[in-house]
Amino acid sequence: MFGVVFPERSYPMDASAFTQIDPLHWVLDMASFVGDAYRDVKEVCVFLLPAAAASFPPGKALAVYVQPPGHPFLFCGAVHPARPSALLALPWPDLAEDAVAAFGVLQVAAASAKIGVSVEDFASLPPVADAGTERRAERLALRVGENLFNFMQSFCGVDGSRLVVPMDILDRWFKKFQERAKKDPSYLKNFSL
């Protein structure tokens, strides 16, 4: 019915790599795939197989979820015949964050991370631009801001109760940021979440 690829981490896998819970639910235990390094798996490409896309029930979608250890499932996105494949970010939450969406009937806390796939009503799914995307963008902005702050701190002076920085500090930081990104493509990946 469907297949998945974890970019730069796996070959294409079909639904047989997952444990089928019932006719509409599948689960992949990440411990068997990457052990405790599940947070390093940042995205999954999910796709409907051609035969399944042609016979997919109208109004249904294949929803994808993640479940960090000890948390309920979180919605990542969905595919359906009009959108037969998608590259979905896996929003592994910080341990302090609460889960926002449950996956089907499986709401027990997991001992290891899992990926869940479920056939559901398309209309009942959250929008694709979900809270996970917003959280990642917020964290990215915070990391870039932290980088700027640390750079500025190294040039600060004190004038009474004020910190003083050179007028061209933003230009200098931005040039350094751009040069480093050009020299080392993996530098920007350090800011990814």
* Proportion of residues in extended strands: 25-35%
Please report the number of helical segments. 5
The level of helicity is 25-40%
Span of the ends, CA to CA: 30 Å
Rounded average pLDDT? 80
The helix-strand sequence is: EEEEHEHEEEEHEEHH
* Count of individual beta strands: 11
- Overall body shape: elongated
Largest beta sheet: what is the strand line-up? 3-4-9-6-7
**Regions with pLDDT < 50 over 5+ consecutive residues?**
95-109
Main sheet, how many strands, which sense, barrel? 5 strands, antiparallel
Number of domains: 2
Briefly note the structural class of the backbone.
alpha+beta
Over the alpha carbons, how many angstroms does the gyration radius reach?
21 Å
Descriptive report:
- The protein is α+β, with helices and mostly antiparallel strands and 193 residues long.
- The protein folds into two domains: 2-127, no CATH class; 133-189, no CATH class.
- 27% of the residues lie in helices and 28% in strands.
- It is built from five helices and eleven strands.
- It has helices spanning 30-34, 50-55, 131-153, 169-183, 186-189, and strands at 2-5, 13-14, 19-22, 25-29, 43-48, 60-67, 74-79, 85-89, 114-121, 157-159, 162-164.
- The chain has a five-stranded antiparallel sheet with strand order 3-4-9-6-7. Strands 2-1-5-8 form a four-stranded antiparallel sheet. The protein has a two-stranded antiparallel ribbon with strand order 10-11.
- A hairpin with a 6-residue loop joins strand 6 and strand 7.
- It is elongated, with a radius of gyration of 21 Å.
- The two termini are 30 Å apart.
- The relative contact order is 0.15.
- Residues 95-109 have low confidence and may be disordered.
- Residues 138-190 form the Hikeshi-like C-terminal domain.
- Residues 17-124 form the Hikeshi-like N-terminal domain.
